[in-house]
Amino acid sequence: MKLLPPDFYTRADTVRVARDLLGKMLVTRFAGKTTTGMITETEAYLGAADKACHAWGWRRTPRNEMMYERGGVAYIYLCYGIHHLFNVVTHRQGEPHAVLVRAVEPVEGLPLMLRRRRKEKVSLALTCGPGALSQALGLHTRFNGTSLLSESIFIHDAGQKVPQTAIGVTTRIGVESAGADGLLPLRFYLKGSPWVSHKPRSH
DNA sequence: CAAACGATTTTCT
DNA sequence: GAAAATCGTTTGG
Prior knowledge:
Blueprint: E1 2-3, H1 6-9, H2 14-20, E2 25-30, E3 33-46, E4 74-79, E5 83-90, E6 97-108, H3 110-117, H4 130-137, E7 153-157, E8 167-170, E9 187-190
Antiparallel strand pairs: 1-7, 2-3, 2-7, 3-6, 3-9, 4-5, 5-6, 8-9
Helix pairs in contact: 3-4
This protein binds a DNA duplex through residues 43, 45, 52-54, 59, 61-63, 77-83, 85, 87, 100, 102, 125, 129-132, 141, 172-175, 177-178, 197.
């Protein structure tokens, strides 16, 4: 198994990291129970210059503190009082960039995912959407700051090839209030995969 | 200290 | 398609 190395995450090009994360395996292992999802959809958040980013204008609060860490740790925060959103912190320490994981394809530990989601049957709703996949994989805010090379949360390359031409690009979801930055093409997904939170527009 | 607000999901009409 | 659910964080007085 090829664990993604530290320098995968510390790169300054967060867009590149967001693209490279597609097709990789996101694994959680809590109390010996493993769940795995293949990453199918991501969004890049580009630090102080990005109005849609929590760290826009170098805003620094207890919540977004982890974004300022060296790339390679998890930034998990509570959204709408209900949903735990999982981000991969990128770039060097002091540069608050991150990649939001918005959807995965279930790979391993399906029964546990179903139990966590309180669902009977596997469906797209199981792991499509940032709040949904986090719940399925047990990614709770209590794991905020956890290393992505740890025993409990890690990402590995299972050999899935993703050529750049297989990646779809759109604007990010739910950041309309960020003005022009809300229109930047920073959402990436595996073309043709049903495991994405919003279907690409058809003509 | 009070009040508004989410990088969403689910349910109901 | 609209609206509720739900609460920690952030902001303003």
